[in-house]
Amino acid sequence: MQLNEMTDLFRQKAELVSAKVSEVASLKEAYEYTVDLCEKKEACQLLVSGCEENLSPKAEALCETKPTARIIAAPGMRKNNFSEFKKLADERGIMLIESGLRKHLGGIDIGFTIADYAVAETGSVVLDSSSEDLRLATMVSEIHVAVVRKSTLRATTNALEAELKALMVKDGKAPSYLAFVTGASRTADIERVLALGVHGPLELHVLLWEDKK
Amino acid sequence: MQDAKDLKEYREHIKSALSNDFQRQALDKFAKAYPVGRANAFKGHDVKALINEVARVKDAGIARLDELYDEFKRKAEALGVKVHLAKTAHEANEIIARIAQENGVKKVLKSKSMTAEETHLNDHLEKYGLEVTETDLGEWIIQLRKEGPTHMVMPAIHLSRHQVADLFSAVTGAAQEVDIDKLVKVARRELRAKYVEADMGISGANFAVAETGSIGIITNEGNARLVTTLPRVHVALVGLEKLTTTLDDALKIIRVLPKNATGQNITSYVTWITGANECATCPDQKKVMHVVFLDNGRSSMAKHESYKEVLRCVRCGACANVCPVYRLVGGHEYGDVYIGAIGLILTYFFHSKEKAKALVQNCVNCQACKEICASGIDLPRIIKEVYNDILNEEGHPAESKVLGLVLKNRALFHGLLRTAKLAQKPLKAEQGYLRHLPLIFSKEHNFRALPAIADKPFRDRWNEIKHRVSPANPRYKVALFSGCVQDFVYPEQLEAVVDILEGKGVQLDFPMAQTCCGLPVRMMGEFNAAKDVAELNVNAFDQSKYDYVLTLCASCGGYLKEMYPRVLTEGGKIPVKAQQFADKVISLSEFMAKVLKLDPAEYQGQGKVTFHSPCHLARGMNVKEEPHEAIRASGHEFVPMEEEHVCCGFGGTYSMKFPQVSKELLDKKIANIEATGAEVIVTECPGCTMQIRGGLHNKGSKVQVMHTSELLAKARKKK
Ligand code: SF4
Ligand code: SF4
To answer: SS3 of B270, please?
Structure first.
């Protein structure tokens, strides 16, 4: 399969499960996209989703732990990339954090990750989530933004088998936590009506990045 | 959860389930939506091939569970996981309770695990004073309501948004709106607060990959990721059969499972956990991780010729989705912990023989589950085998024993039928009322008008008509297998075959020593009698003489073709004659469409005709399109009915055991027939003819029921 066919298929399959797919020319563009997105979250959504509902005192209390500033979590990034991103976020008054996610279980606005691979036939991104902070960033956030380098896009999961195994086994020396993420967190447990964001992100944004091969 | 003590109590349960309007509407909607979503998800794929692959990789694992367990243990323990093997459900629960105690655990969070439901883990942990919270939305809802699941994938499908709103109002102590989106958000926040405090997370696993020592979990909500990340301790409770040899095997299953379960290409999250991962609040920053494998009879099932197939199940829930009985009565009455066809079977192994005994009888044997199963399990066959095993343990009822004895002796059986004909005389005037053959000997009464036994069975007419189908140089030599219903109740359906085959170069024979196919006794769990009867029939036909064994009865046909070789297997070997016999069996429409080739110029039918697809024709003999072709070729306008492949509710003995369910299925069928506006409904099985004709008659409908043979005979131009 040609790259453009794969890209089209990926977009089609990901959009089918309500992911938002865009193209970026550089990582910088991805940061810009993310801070824009964070800023555009409307006032009412400033609240962590669900906190506007009638909750039990305990759940209310957790809602109150969320700082008033908007937060983006971007764990596992290279130092220079993180500082570049942080500069952008600072300018807009957004908190950018890379660790200590357990302190933010009340909620963060956006989790930002760079995917290891992506699979066209299912519209999935593959993330080595062995870092606990990375796992949490992609779970407790309201929105998950995942950058996919086009060079890591594959037609099928089967075509990725060797790479997946390498990520899972890590020479048999280290543990591993690997995730395929496809669309937002969803449920249809009440009357089979689809609802997004039951535990994890309400939205998944995928930024396809034409990287140098 | 099923708690009826016997069949009588179970019938009472069924009655009240049938009056649960919300559940019925919900399941009806789902039953119609599911096939569409599934077909979409599989578009462009060879579904059968994908399912066969799942069966293949599962079978390969099942054959060497011990080795896979050892390999998994070695790999996982090298990465800091403690792996346990529990022989029994109680042992598994105890292991987990001990892990909780050793780690000073007070609060436990769970993500969905059918295996934990199987062991009733929550009850056990609560006895130790632990607080256990389910995090899957559906599971949380039913946990709060103190109920069991009614579906393996959608545990709360029986509840309305109103019920959930009331429940959440009570739980939060704050009034909740009846708005699904908002209710989901409430659950998000309430459960998020639980994650913060929990000490231990319990998950299930869909896969345990031996070559890497990883567990794989698929979820849509993502709760399993939080459950396996936030608490200090993670315990995965995993059925032994979840072991796969390689990652590739697991990926093959993932190609089918979500598509078959919910019509999704893949679930939102697929998580692979290998070893004890990083955990900020844990000693040494490492998660305390345990994997508890549950045997609970699995390793001996793996060695059982018939039951090992059960271990292929990947818990997709599809066998409930397509089951016409589940659709009417819901999961609380169609399984215990496990639901649907697989639930009927697993209840026997894991929960209660008494419950299973009632449950397995509530299968109409329509084969829908078998056709849809993600791993190609022959569920209806195994359901009957479970029933036979239970009867072998507890003794067979006198009634089915008598029927078995009668059927084993053809002369006695046919003699009794002839006597019964005399006995029915006084009744015949008022629309002939008698019971289905050979269940005429059954005590229980039927619930609707059924036809009388014919004055002269087909076997007595044969000599007068056979010359019409005895050409000098035949192109095909065909033997007719009539089955007892057509022979003794609907001989006209068989005679019509003579009308349509005359002059077509077909030599038709009717071997007189043939008798009932034996399906009714097999359905009643009388396996020995079924075997004897099958032998009578195979011996009645000289396999070497015929090109085809033609049958107009789909139930007989499906049974002869699929089950005879298995029923007659002796010491692991299929007798050659039995296989030859089975291979030659063909249905009428397939014979007409594929062998003789239908020629529209021969026919001059007119008017609208619809078709009801008999379960054992469509799924037993895999004949779906040919009847439509026959109707079109006969000159009639074919108007398809909605849900033409759904069972009409006959099912032989079934319609007497569960008359209310049978009647509901029939009512639906009748409504679908009437909606087509057809003047004639054609079908290709005397059982369906009987059921549908009885239903239409009771409604005073003018729609006529015909067998494919009768339609073709009537429409054929006279020479
Ligand atoms: S054979 Fe039909 S009635 Fe029996 S369990 Fe399967 S789907 Fe249900
Ligand atoms: S028996 Fe087959 S259809 Fe039923 S849940 Fe298991 S895999 Fe799915």
So the answer is: strand
- The finding on whether B687 has its CB within 6 A of some atom of ligand 1 is no
Two tokens at B686?
Answer: 């005397």
Q: What sign for the dihedral angle of Cα B330, B333, B339, B344?
A: negative
The pLDDT tens digits of the residues spanning B579-599 come to 999 999 999 999 999 999 999
Residue count (chain A): 213
Amino acid at B52: N
Between positions 271 and 300 of B, the ones with CB within 8 A of A are 271-281, 286
Q: Are the beta carbons of A175 and B226 separated by less than 8 Å?
A: no
Task: Note whether B30 contacts A: Cβ–Cβ < 8 A.
Answer: yes
CB-CB: which of B176, B187, B225 is closest to A198? B187
Q: For A55, which of B26, B174, B226 is closest by C-beta distance? A: B174
- What would the pLDDT profile of B273-285 be if each residue is shown by its tens digit? 999 999 998 888 9
Task: Find out whether B15 and B241 touch, Cβ atoms under 8 Å.
Answer: no
The reported pLDDT for the residue numbered B442 is 46
CA-based nearest residue in chain B for residue A121: B265
Structure tokens at A57: 């005192």
Q: What is the pLDDT of residue B652?
A: 81
Judge if the upstream peptide bond of residue B438 is cis by omega within 30 degrees of 0: yes
Structure tokens at B529: 């009698």
- B402: number of Cβ within 10 Å: 14
User: Which residue is it, tokens 């369910």?
Assistant: B661
- The dihedrals phi and psi of B547, each to the nearest 5 degrees, come to -80, -35
Q: What is the DSSP string of B24-67?
A: HHHHHHHHHHHHHHHHHHTTTS-HHHHHHHHHHHHHHHHTTHHH
Contacts of B172 in chain A (CB under 8 A): 54-56, 59
Nearest one of B562, B656, B642 to B364, comparing CA atoms: B656
- Strand B288-294, strand B476-481: pairing: unpaired
Tell me: the pLDDT tens digits for A36-72? 999 887 644 545 678 888 899 888 888 888 777 889 9
Per-residue pLDDT tens for B505-536?
A: 999 999 999 999 999 899 888 999 999 999 99
**Residues framing ligand 2 (Cβ under 6 A):** B 313-319, 340-342, 372-375, 377, 379
Best residue in A190, A192, A204 for a mutation probing chain B (most B CBs within 10 Å): A190
DSSP structural state of residue B502: T
pLDDT classification of B426: cutoffs 50, 70, 90: very low
Q: How far apart are CA B594 and CA A55, in angstroms?
A: 66
Task: With H, G, I as helix, E, B as strand and everything else as coil, classify residue A56.
Answer: coil
Q: Is B382 in the pocket of ligand 1 (CB under 6 A)?
A: no
Q: Which residues contact B560 (CB under 8 A, 6 or more apart)?
A: B481, B517, B537, B549, B551, B581, B582, B585
Determine the pLDDT at residue B448: 52
Q: Residue B59 burial by CB count (10 A; 0-12/13-18/19+): exposed, middle or buried?
A: middle
* ipTM of the modeled complex: 0.96
- CA of A37, closest CA in chain B: separation in Å? 21
Please give the DSSP secondary-structure letter assigned to residue B592: I
Distance, in Å, from the CA atom of A73 to the CA atom of A101, rounded to the nearest integer, reads: 8
